[in-house]
Amino acid sequence: MKPIYFDLDFGITCIDTRHMRDDFVAAYLIEDNGCVAFVDTGCYLSVPTLLATLDEKNIKREQVDYIILTHIHLDHAGGAGALIKHLPNAKVYVHEYGANHLIDPSKLRAGVIGVYGELFFKQFLGDLIPIAKDKIIIAKDKDEITLGSRVLKFIDTLGTLAIMCAFGMKNRAVFLVVIPWA
Asked: Is 97's pLDDT higher than 60?
């Protein structure tokens, strides 16, 4: 399947994760001076699309430095465990409240199946793959990481959910989750 993505300015690519349908959930790819990061992953079923995007853009999997998760809802972060298996040098940045769910996703899986059922889980989310603890970095408020020549700053967005935003200083891009019913 050919990936659907849109190159935005400043080395940012918007990738349609094709979660449930087209034009519904996006992940982002940031490239800067040979350094690469994903912001969010979509669900497990989105991983082939993300890998195909890397292939189309001639980005080697070894070049990906980070997977940055804005929050751990499965439509945005459910593919992180599967994706990291293909990215040998990548680390996952996540809010401290989400880290344990990535290391052991059994409670997350049970909760989703309890609410939506096994069929929904398999058909629309696929699976949840644990992430090794040594691949996870806890992102704290005001932490900064360098990606090429840009600095990404994490902002703890207290409110309905404990989530994180990554703020790209170079281009003023902000990646966050919007919860319209909150």
From this structure: yes
